[in-house]
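Q: Entry one of two.
A:
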Amino acid sequence: MRKYISRFFVQCRLGVVFAGVAGLMLLFELIKGVFIPENASIWVSHALTILFSATLATLVTFLLRRTTREVQLHADLILESLAEGIYGTDTQGNCTFVNSAFLHILGYQHADEVLSRHIHELIHHSHADGTAYPATECRMYQAYRRNVKIHVDDEVFWRRDGTPVEVEYWSYPIHRNGQMLGAVATFLDITERKKAEAALQLSEQRFRDVSDAAGEYVWEMDTNMVYSYVSARAKAVKGYTPEQLLGHSPLEFMPQEDREGVTEIVKRAMTDNTHFTLQHRDITPTGEVVWEEVHGISFYDSKGALIGLRGTGMDISERKQKEHQVHHQAFYDTLTKLPNRRLLGERLLATLNISERTRQYGALMFLDLDNFKPLNDRHGHVVGDLLLIEVARRLKSCIRKVDMAARFGGDEFVVLLCGLSARQDEAIVQARQLAEKIRSRVSEVYRLTSPQPDSPESLSAKLPDEAATGVIEHRCTLSIGVAMFIDHLAGEQEILKQADAAMYDAKNSGRNAVCFYAEPAPSATNDYL
């Protein structure tokens, strides 16, 4: 390496020297023409020429020697100032020169400890695990064996004290006039870099392990909501591999009705630089719908420009199912699956609010089965429960989707109507028509089959046909009380009381009837429509 750096500087300086010599020769010809007469003897001319040539030769020799010394000095300074270790080898693998960085990195004091030594056997004899590394397999030597440039970053050199140092090295062939002379190698101590890379890998693995343990996958997406990174855990959550997700938007895997809400939340997070949490559904490759909870935050480049968002996602389908079960147990009757009192109260309040905005009437019907207790007494609670389930089914078949049928308790049910006419007389007609429809439908004969074996006592109480077929026929009528409402002229509890009072009036009038509640007259007597 030193020779080739010197040769470069020598060539540059020689160009300057020869240019100066050419100038001196031209000057000499001019001097001859001025100071030597044309009729001067040939001896005088030759004498002057010899004198000038000797002077010129001395000058050229002086300049060349000075140039060589300066160039050598410059080459040495360059080699010694480099942080990279540099060494050269001949075609036998013996070291021809080293620089100070080589000695420093590998722990040597003097170049004499290395020069003329077989460099592979000295510093490159073993792999990182201590196994032998034959010189015939050394990739550094391929530079002059195959006349190619070599770059390696996964090997070690060995220090003078026998400890390894991780290196990255480059090897270049050296040849002159078609003849291979050896190779020159430069190398860097990359121990700290390897430690940093290992620490980074450990940190990334730690994050992946924690995310996997939490059941989460990691994602990144650009400002167009297109995935740029997805971890392998996504397969367990979404059913798609990272390769199937990259280049696509998460919106593509959601039901249409979830996309608008998700887009609004994500874009607001990008605009406001805020963290977001959202829940949405995914459709897996098999068509299964799963619930996912996503946490994300915007991230930026060093200049503050928005790059995109990154975060985690996890499958919450089981949680959603449990939440649904808890909600259903809290708001629905376990036997009939109809809404219970609690949900009825919330729905009634919402209906009153709607009525206030729309100025339309609503109605609440209180229903009581007229002939239920004898069925329970005769056939037991199992059959009684079957009747209640069938009554609930018939109620739901009679009402609109915007209405609600609820079980109030025992054999009592409530039907809530909303969006009736804004005129009271028309709203009453609408409510009466639906009440009569319900009364008629629920009063139809029931054919119930008990799922449990009959005891001797229950068999003796049955009619012959019932005992033979196991099918119980029963007729059950309804007493219905109706309370009309609009706006918040009456509260929820007051409306329930009014409907209950109207229902008892239907009972007292002979049962199987529909009665409407009316405000008491000034005489304080109750008057029902």
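Q: Entry two of two.
A:
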Amino acid sequence: MKRIILVLIMNLLLGGLVAQEPVYCELPVANTDGFLSAKVNPAALSFGNGGGIGFLGHYDKDGKFEDDVYSLFFNFDGLAYVLDHSNVDDHTILLSSKLFRNFHLGASYNWRNDKYKKGDWSESLLYRPFDFLSLGAVGRDLFKDERSYQIGLAVRPVFLKGKVWDRVSFSSDFSYTDEEWSDPAIGIQTELVNGINFGGSYSLETETIGANFSLSFSKLKIGSLFGFDDENKFSQGSYYVHVSDKFFRSFTDSKRRDKFYDFKLTGKIVEKKSGMEIGPFKIVSGKDQTISQVIKKIEKLKKDDKIGGIVFKSGNFSTSFANFLELKKALLDFKSTGKKIVFYYENISNVNYAFAASVADEIYLNPLGSIDLKGISVSMPYLKDALNKLGIEVINFRSHEYKTAGNMLSENGMTAAERESYDELLQGLYDELVSMIDSGRKGKLSKSAAEIIDDGPYFISKKAYENGLVDGIIYEDELEDKLKDIYPKTKILKKLCQNKIRYDWSDEKKDKIALIYAVGNIHSGKGRSGKSIGSVTTSQAIKKAREDKSVKGIILRIDSGGGSALASDIIAREIALCKEGKNKKPVIASMGGVAASGG
């Protein structure tokens, strides 16, 4: 593979480039990464901005449209097909790949009409080591006598503060043909206003000027390219339409944060999705959401300038108490930007209400809804007497009286040590529950949160409203109008603009950190993803991360009620080895909902 890459690069560097066709107005090879990159620099296709369908038409110096001359683009990330139609048809297949961080290599094969065996190859590269620097090169018709080069660079004024630096770029391109280097073509591209793009170039070799203009609307871009001769007279032009698979910055975008996102937060939130392996295939459950997925989505909403808030509708969900607190932290961070959070419920469960109260600006309840707020308790069945009647005697091996996992089989009631443990645990959870309600509904409750809980549950919505647990009693179809009364011109969105055009150039260099999940009971042998912790599976994962020199550290995410002492010791040995030998690296344990002892 390395030899193939080396040959391609050497062919590119030692082959040649043609000057850009005049119709493309000498677009810069280092700064063109949209759908026209299929014509200008195919390596940029794998950068990710060129996907979609495009049409490119032409008109002459008199402004007359050439109806029978056009190009059609069918672009994907890393793959494209272009049809150039005129009195003959030219076909081009283009491939592009990101070989390593910020380095893209492209190749294309072009043929005319049905003479696909007589086509020729072109190659290109794009290297963007920094957000302020981009380098590009293209070699066309490499196996013909007319082969030629074009190389270019583009820079951005990163010293400009705010959001301006990625809206202006300067370029310089050199062509090599007929065994001679041309004088450079210098250019500028701007987008000082969202979705309105201006650009131009001047060739010192031909003393000609090129210009381009485009408008962006959501996933649609329309634009035109202009060419002027050495007497500054219009010579020819092109116009295009690009339907992208990603969202552009649009000049119709409003700066108002008037969009509330309808966040679906129901079902079960887990540490890691469960799955199973069948031969070489791994099947993962798609129903549940992971805590990391939810938090990342909240962080994305925080950074989205169009989003002014989040709406949770009937968002009862189940997860560990620790995950409730992690979500609380993430949502309070979201609110720190001035954005709002609103909950609407038909019925609210116990801990879900405390969670909503701790972060919500407004909570609304269905007229026939209820709040099942009643505190926390635990009950255990004890089977000793029942087993004795069956002639079964249970011997509970335990290191001390607080090891109570087997008590339900060996005891006929809760022991003093077990009660002490549960009292400590439940009191801590209860205190946190009270604190969440008090802090979030401060000034709205009719009395303290502890008294509110003592008087619960609230099966009549009016009673919940009178005690300040909710801010209104409405039907779901009234929610958007209610929000507009509080936050003018609000609109609730069901979908996010997730795939956006990329405006930075460089991928930040990041150290590799191994994240290893330890979820479920601990046992010997192989574990099941998201279900159990097998000593073989987990120790092998730690060993692999330990021996990988590119991994700088390990995070062990634990959500386990404990289990086998032997299996735990095998896993612990691999962790200990991370502190010894050639590849020493830190190991950080991150505790989830449960972190009980292994043995």
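A: Comment on entry two: The chain is about 25% helix and 35% strand. The two ends are 49 Å apart (CA to CA).
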